[in-house]
């Protein structure tokens, strides 16, 4: 509620009525129970509306100011019409603070005493805990304009609310308990309330005396209330619902003998029981069958109302329960004094939460006919939900058809959602699992759930996605999985469903209809969900090949583009449920449990040093090397910016207790308080010159040698009492945070890359240099030194060569590398190696400990991350990574997950790994081609440690043929008849080789001195461009040369046979295009290249029209720039048209003609060569991949998972083959006519 007042007026004391606040005699009730008020999603917009509403009591001065406020609000909505969907902080600033600033500016001269008061009542009734925290933080953070705004928030003392208030030291708060309020004050409030309500009842009924019901009766009622307003409210409603019998009803209540000493609910229980008994007092007159029906209706209707998770209208409840409107309204009419309902479409709400508690407690509601068994009610509601869902759910619930449509598309408005998902279906979609969990699970339920999920899982997830509740859908399936005790088929299906939803979360949550295409295609073909949903693919998807057989240990993959960030580009939240990572120009926050992005915020420039605060509320990072941003993950807004004026910031840490933020630069160490974000202590480089004795004397030293902080070393002790720094004069200094003083200093013997420093679990400081380990005792200030005993490879006693050290998080274990291959683990206390060495085949330079110091990972920057167990030294697992995407590794705080952060974020589940396993190193798809008939996909699988593997996939038979090439393949092609593969690359001696393989026999033919090649369309001939600039035609059947073509004077880049094999076209690096009659060894035409002459050409392509009357060629000179293209008439040898085309990095094919020769297809668009003809619906435009989408006819068709963003691909007509950096290959074939229908083309 919002209200403006003049501070010169007096307050009347607010009445202590339920849910009301009173100012200047006006009482405003906040309607409880509605979804909007409970979710608080419209709180600030509602406040803005109330502030902008003119009051009848407004003066002339405030009226003009109100106009200024309204104008400011209109301007805010004009500038940002979408503000109602923006973050809470933006709404508060633009809809409340700025308009109020305009209001007070207008009043400054004429009414300087006017102020605004906002009252937020019953904050605890907000259903979302994050909303409660966000509301308090948003209001507490904002500087109030001219100090003219006062905010009053009332709430029951729930733990969450109390913690939030106690955490905000700059706001006033107090607790008020009715037990502490004098009884006479409460009774006085109750007496005023009863007088007012009884007067209203008397006025509605003739025959009552003016003093009815009398002071003595009122006194009895007052004592019965026992200080509870809800008792008084219920009694009044009970009397008001039938004024004709109000006196008899009142007498019945007064005749009840309430026993004292049985708790404060006894009188209220009697009141509720009286109301219920009176409502159903005629049961004795009914027949047995009528009694049974009455009991069943009561249990069904009232039981549903008691256990429902949202307040539904009578109409919606009728649709959910299949109980008629008439029956529901009849029951509600009888119970109107305890259940509020003003119409068939208005929400049904309980008068007070105590009624729910009463009617569901058999010890308090002693009438078996009236008590509600909540467990039975939950089970019945679960069955109602399942019945509704089974009848209603289907593919494409909102009849949108377009597979690329997003949840935030303007077409997907509330009307369309309501048409596809009526309110009762929405309720069933959101809450069926909750009712199942609370009602208990039996065999019949399991059977029903099993049937439902196998038939409707995808439909249900689609529905949850349209309602923006994808995260809740994943959590529901996770809870269902945990609810099932045995390894049943249903439990296995739930595990698979959860994996399916997490892996495809980023796709489905934004584009729900992709669950029927992208999610099915890119999930393993042996997935239980995919097998159960094989018939759910859309009609336009004819065939597809999934890239993998079964699920792996990958939990989440997301594109981050984080290679440009100088520090660890990823951070886990303390509870391991969220990750934050850099992604281009923003920070993204993802739910690891749900596989979706839950928030993001933009950066002004490159950030670094990404960290979650110890309580998980904030994300902190350095921006511009000059400030620390603190982003509030609850309010979803930037909380504050910490700056050290005149100084940079290189690194920072949170103290383990979360109270402080400590940053370091060459010149300063700054300590801020985390709660207030205020400076607490600053250490300057000048402090490094003083010894302990000098500090005690507080001297004023003269010029000294320049000493500065080494920014590579900054540690905070486990108990958050000490800061450890290292200065450029090689001295470790320990600073006491509480006393803001130097505590101790330790000289070092030099400082190099082998030095390691950190605090142990018992707060001791550990310093490792070469083979020397120094432990500084926290309590005694004494130091203990040990020497590492590490055998060298030559079996001598001690190794003294250069070493690299890593200290475990608890300071108990030291990992030491001797040469980048051998790793030794030592006890810190003794210096002794406690097991055999670990050996890595490739040199590693990065090591990461798990938080419990039980596991380590080794990463070499090549193509694998190795996971080791510390105690056994076993290699637990090896995770393949892309060697072209270097990154960093990080364990989750709970040790259950391992993250790899490069251009892609990959997170693996390592919680269940206990046995030794070694995976094959990672491979990537470097080249991919579709055969001419579209039935074969040939691709090159590249690994860093082995020659390229050539594969030919038969998409009809789902069978692969593998050819070992013995080359590092740089280019390859497949013959049109799918019998031959030609590969070019370097062999083990780095010599360039070209091999022709017979696919069936896998026998290679070595072809020397080759530049480029091309198969004829009949697959009988192979054109070979040699290093001598000559073209030779090789007969594949007779294994001999047929002719030699001479004419080029430089290296030849492209060869292409015409459709009939009668002609051959070639392009050289100078850009000259030649057309040959190779049978007569005759040059038919030469088309010189004009623009860009002299520039090196790095790529080109040629295409003949089907009738061989036209030739198109494209040449690319500069990477990233458009290429110049020409269309030539082969009958006249003259240019017909010039054009440009973009470079598609991931696709080899650039140009092609439509079958009728009308359209020239290029990337990314198609050219109509005969635009004067009638428009043609089918332009035969090729399928392309752009911005993580498979696109056709300039429309989004298939959303690619994040790990496919750089997929190599090839397309022909309605077929597409693609391969990713994990060595996986996928294939799709679609029906153009059906896809046009779906896209509305």
Automatic annotation (TrEMBL):
Entry keyword set: Repeat, WD repeat
Compositionally biased residues, Polar residues: 9-23
Region feature (Disordered): 1-23
One Pfam family hit: WD40
SMART domains: WD40
Domain Nephrocystin 3-like N-terminal: 27-156
WD repeat spans: 714-745, 1008-1044, 1045-1086
Protein name according to UniProt: Nephrocystin 3-like N-terminal domain-containing protein
Species this chain originates from: Aureobasidium pullulans (Black yeast)
């Amino acid at each position: 509620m919002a209200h403006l007042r003049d501070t010169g007026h007096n307050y009347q004391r607010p009445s202590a009525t339920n849910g009301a606040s009173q100012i200047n005699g006006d009482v405003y009730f906040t309607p409880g129970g509605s979804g909007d008020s409970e979710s608080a999603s419209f709180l600030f917009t509602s406040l803005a509306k109330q502030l902008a509403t003119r009051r009848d009591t407004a003066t002339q001065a405030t009226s003009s100011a109100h106009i200024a406020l309204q104008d400011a609000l209109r301007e805010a909505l004009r500038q940002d019409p979408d503000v109602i969907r923006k973050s809470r902080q933006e709404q508060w600033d633009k809809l409340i603070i700025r308009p109020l600033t305009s209001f007070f500016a207008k009043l400054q001269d004429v009414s300087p005493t006017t102020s605004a008061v906002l009252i937020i009542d019953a904050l605890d009734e907000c259903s979302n805990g994050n909303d409660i925290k966000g509301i308090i933080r948003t209001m507490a953070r904002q500087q109030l304009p001219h100090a003219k705004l006062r905010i009053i928030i009332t709430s029951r003392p729930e733990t969450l609310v109390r913690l939030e208030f106690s955490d905000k030291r700059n706001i006033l708060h107090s607790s008020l308990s009715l037990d502490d309020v004098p009884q006479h004050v409460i009774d006085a409030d109750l007496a005023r309330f009863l007088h007012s309500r009884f007067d209203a009842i008397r006025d509605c009924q003739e025959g009552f005396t003016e003093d009815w019901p009398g002071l003595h009766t009122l006194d009895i009622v007052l004592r019965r209330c026992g200080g509870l307003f809800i008792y008084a409210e219920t009694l009044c409603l009970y009397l008001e619902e039938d004024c004709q019998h109000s006196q008899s009803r009142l007498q019945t209540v007064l005749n009840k003998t309430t026993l004292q000493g049985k708790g404060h609910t006894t009188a209220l229980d009697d009141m509720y029981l009286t109301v219920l008994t009176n409502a159903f007092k005629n049961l004795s007159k009914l027949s047995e069958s009528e009694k049974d029906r009455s009991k069943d209706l009561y249990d069904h209707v009232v039981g549903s109302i008691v256990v429902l998770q949202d307040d539904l209208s009578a109409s919606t409840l009728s649709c959910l329960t299949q109980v008629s409107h008439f029956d529901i309204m009849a029951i509600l009419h009888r119970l109107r004094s305890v259940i509020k309902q003003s119409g068939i479409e208005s929400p049904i709400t309980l008068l007070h939460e105590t009624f729910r508690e009463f009617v569901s407690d058999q010890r308090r509601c002693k009438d078996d006919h009236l008590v509600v068994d909540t467990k039975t009610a939950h089970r019945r509601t679960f069955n109602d939900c399942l019945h509704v869902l089974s009848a209603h759910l289907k593919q494409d619930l909102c009849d949108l058809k377009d597979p690329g449509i997003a949840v935030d598309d303007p077409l997907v408005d509330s009307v369309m959602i309501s048409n596809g998902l009526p309110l009762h279906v929405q309720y069933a979609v959101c809450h069926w699992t909750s009712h199942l969990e609370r009602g208990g699970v039996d065999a019949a339920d399991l059977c029903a759930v099993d049937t439902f999920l196998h038939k409707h899982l995808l439909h249900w997830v689609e529905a949850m996605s349209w309602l923006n509740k994808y995260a809740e859908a994943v959590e529901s399936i996770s809870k269902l999985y945990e609810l099932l005790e045995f390894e049943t088929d249903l439990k296995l299906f739930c595990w698979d469903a959860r994996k399916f939803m997490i892996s495809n979360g980023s796709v489905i949550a934004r584009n729900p209809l992709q669950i029927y295409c992208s999610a099915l295609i890119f999930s393993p073909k042996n997935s239980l969900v995919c097998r159960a949903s094989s018939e759910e693919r859309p009609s336009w998807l004819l065939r597809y090949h999934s890239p993998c057989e079964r699920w792996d240990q990958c939990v989440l993959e997301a594109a981050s583009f984080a290679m440009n960030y100088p520090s660890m580009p990823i951070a886990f939240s303390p509870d391991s449920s969220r990750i934050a990572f850099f992604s281009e120009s923003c920070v993204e926050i993802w739910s690891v449990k749900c596989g979706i992005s839950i928030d993001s915020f933009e950066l002004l420039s490159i950030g670094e040093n990404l960290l979650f605060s110890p309580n998980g509320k904030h994300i902190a990072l350095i921006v511009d090397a000059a400030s620390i941003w603190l982003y509030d993950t609850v309010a979803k807004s930037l909380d504050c910016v910490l700056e050290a004026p005149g100084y940079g910031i290189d690194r920072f840490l949170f103290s383990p207790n979360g109270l402080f933020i400590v940053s370091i630069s060459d010149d300063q160490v700054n300590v801020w308080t985390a709660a207030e974000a205020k400076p607490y202590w600053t250490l300057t480089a000048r402090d490094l010159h003083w010894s302990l004795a000098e500090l005690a004397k507080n001297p004023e030293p003269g010029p000294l040698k320049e000493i500065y902080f080494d920014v590579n070393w900054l540690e905070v002790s486990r108990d958050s009492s000490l800061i450890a720094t290292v200065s450029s004069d090689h001295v470790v200094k320990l600073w006491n945070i509480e006393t803001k003083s130097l505590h101790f200093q330790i000289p070092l013997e030099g400082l190099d890359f082998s030095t390691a420093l950190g605090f142990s679990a018992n707060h001791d400081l550990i310093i490792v240099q070469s083979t020397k380990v120094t432990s500084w005792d926290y309590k005694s200030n004494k130091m203990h030194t040990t020497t590492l005993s590490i055998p060298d490879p030559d079996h001598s006693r001690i190794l003294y060569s250069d070493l690299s050290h890593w200290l475990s998080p608890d300071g108990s274990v030291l990992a030491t590398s001797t040469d980048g291959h051998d790793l030794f683990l030592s006890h810190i206390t003794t210096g002794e190696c406690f097991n055999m060495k670990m050996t890595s085949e490739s040199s590693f330079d990065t090591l990461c400990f798990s938080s419990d110091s039980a596991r380590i990972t080794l990463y070499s920057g090549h193509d694998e991350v190795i996971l080791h167990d510390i105690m056994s030294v076993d290699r637990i697992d090896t995770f393949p990574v892309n060697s072209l995407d270097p990154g960093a590794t990080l364990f989750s705080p709970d040790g259950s997950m391992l993250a790899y952060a490069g251009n892609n974020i990959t997170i693996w589940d390592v919680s269940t790994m206990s046995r030794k396993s070694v995976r094959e190193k990672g491979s990537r798809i470097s080249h991919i081609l579709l055969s001419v008939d579209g039935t074969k996909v040939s691709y090159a699988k590249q690994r860093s440690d082995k020659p390229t593997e050539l594969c030919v996939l038969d998409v009809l038979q789902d069978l692969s043929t593998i050819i070992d090439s013995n080359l590092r393949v740089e280019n390859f092609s497949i013959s049109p008849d799918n019998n031959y593969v030609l590969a070019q690359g370097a062999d083990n001696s780095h010599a360039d080789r070209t091999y022709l393989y017979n696919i069936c026999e896998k026998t290679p033919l070595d072809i020397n001195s080759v530049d480029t090649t091309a198969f004829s369309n009949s697959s009988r001939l192979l054109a070979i461009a040699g290093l001598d600039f000559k073209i030779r035609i090789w007969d594949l059947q007779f294994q001999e040369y047929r002719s030699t073509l001479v004419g080029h004077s430089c290296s030849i880049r492209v060869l292409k046979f015409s459709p009939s094999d009668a002609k051959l076209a070639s392009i050289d690096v100078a850009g000259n295009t030649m057309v040959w009659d190779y049978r007569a060894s005759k040059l038919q035409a030469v088309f010189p290249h004009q623009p860009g002459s002299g520039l090196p050409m790095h790529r080109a392509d040629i295409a003949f029209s089907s009738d061989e009357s036209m030739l198109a060629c494209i040449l690319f000179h500069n990477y990233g720039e458009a290429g110049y293209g020409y269309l030539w008439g082969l009958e006249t040898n003259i240019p017909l048209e010039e054009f440009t085309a973009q470079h598609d990095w991931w696709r080899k094919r650039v140009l092609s003609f439509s079958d009728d020769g009308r359209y020239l297809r290029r990337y990314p668009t198609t050219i109509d060569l005969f635009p004067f003809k009638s428009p043609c619906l089918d332009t035969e435009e090729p399928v392309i991949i752009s911005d993580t989408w498979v696109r056709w006819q300039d429309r989004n068709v298939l959303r690619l998972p994040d790990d496919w963003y750089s997929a190599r691909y090839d397309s022909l007509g309605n077929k597409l083959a693609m391969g990713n950096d994990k060595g996986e290959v996928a294939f799709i074939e679609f029906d153009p006519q059906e896809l046009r229908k779906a896209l509305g083309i």
